[in-house]
Design a protein that fits this description.
The chain is an alpha/beta fold and 318 residues long. It has a single domain, classed as Aldolase class I (TIM Barrel), CATH 3.20.20. The chain contains twelve helices and eight strands. It has an eight-stranded parallel beta sheet. Helix 9 links the parallel strand 5 and strand 6. Helix 4 runs parallel beside helix 5 and helix 8 packs across helix 9. The protein is globular. The chain starts with 17 loop residues before the first helix and ends in a 12-residue tail after the last helix. Belongs to the DeoC/FbaB aldolase family. DeoC type 2 subfamily. Its EC number is 4.1.2.4. This is Deoxyribose-phosphate aldolase. One of its GO terms (cellular component) is cytoplasm.
């Protein structure tokens, strides 16, 4: 039901032509769309034991990339979000911090200053986010600005027009160039799965990103509907699982956009466990891009501790 296992021993090298990349990507086992959606639905219906819910909530909090990507973002808003990222519930010091904050490149230095010593990472969207439509020189300058500001993670977007037009070489070269420009920062490659049309394309884009140097593959910018979906994430988890089985290397996965409730987050954790395995149940290999999810996780956590929900204004909305 999940589609054939992919072995990348025959994957083209970095100098491969567009024709070779096209032959490789279009030769991947096809995704059974009906089967993948049924499998995702089946996993979404599973529940976890009540005594495990607290552990799952804390794990989900530690996987959150707390995000603000609005034209009205200000230094004050980013500082407030950064404080929340490091101490999500000031009344309960046992609450874990999130994995990272995610901001535009011009706000990276603000977040870095606010989070210094906290252990929370600073991610920045780059490469003409969210469209990905800019000359490569501009994308690399965008990336360089974020890295110079102290970003520890770069979230880049692929050129979906080039991908859908079959220019896989261009997409590969841009990912590889941004990988080099990112230096020590981890590179998350955003596929924008809602624009790719089919799960076959999701699988192809995922494998292309992995071979071009992605540390993470990410579903969405959060600016296009549909954003993260369970079937697309299922296909991406299969890809990183199969890549590890062949090469021993692990690549992370990040669904982003539209994940708003604790129930949603736990559904993704169940899928990670069942498809990729327990090694991916860690912030180093699985993230959740969200702006509103954290408060629901905190409310559910407080309810488990006290038996009652806190008032809606107990947590900040930054």
């Amino acid at each position: 039901m999940e589609g054939g296992t992919v072995h990348d021993s025959a994957a083209p090298g970095p100098e491969a032509s567009n024709a070779a990349l096209r032959a490789y990507l279009r030769g991947l086992p096809g995704v059974d769309e009906v089967g993948a959606r049924e499998r995702a639905s089946e996993l979404a219906a599973r529940s976890i034991k009540a005594e495990a819910k607290g552990t799952a909530i804390d794990l989900a909090i530690r996987m959150v990339d707390l995000t603000t990507l609005e034209g009205a973002d200000s230094p004050g808003k980013v500082r407030a979000m950064s404080v929340k990222a490091a101490r999500p519930d000031p009344a309960d010091p046992s609450t874990p911090p999130v994995a990272a904050v995610c901001v535009y490149p011009d706000m990276v230095s603000v977040a870095v200053d606010a989070l210094r010593g906290s252990g929370v990472g600073v991610a920045s969207v780059a490469t003409a986010f969210p469209s990905g439509r800019a000359p490569l020189e501009a994308k690399l300058a965008d990336t360089g600005h974020a890295v110079a500001g102290g970003a520890t993670e770069i979230d880049m977007v692929i050129d979906r027009g080039a991908f859908l037009g079959g220019d896989y070489r261009k997409v590969y070269e841009e990912i590889a160039a941004v990988r080099e420009a990112s230096g020590a920062a981890h590179l998350k490659v955003i596929l924008e799965t809602g624009e790719l049309g089919t799960l076959d394309n999701v699988r192809r884009a995922c494998w292309l990103a992995i071979h071009a140097g992605a540390d993470f593959v990410k579903t969405s910018t959060g600016k296009v509907a549909p954003a993260a979906t369970l079937p697309a994430t299922l296909v991406m988890l299969q890809a990183v699982r199969d890549h590890h089985a062949t090469t021993g290397a692990r690549v992370g996965v990040k669904p982003a956009g539209g994940i708003r409730t604790t129930k949603d987050a736990i559904r993704y954790l169940v899928m990670v466990n069942e498809v990729a395995g327990t090694a991916w149940l860690a912030p180093a290999l699985f993230r959740i891009g969200a702006s509103s999810l954290l408060n629901d996780l905190l409310m559910q956590r407080a309810r488990l501790a006290s038996g009652t929900y806190p008032s809606p204004d107990h947590f900040t909305t930054d």
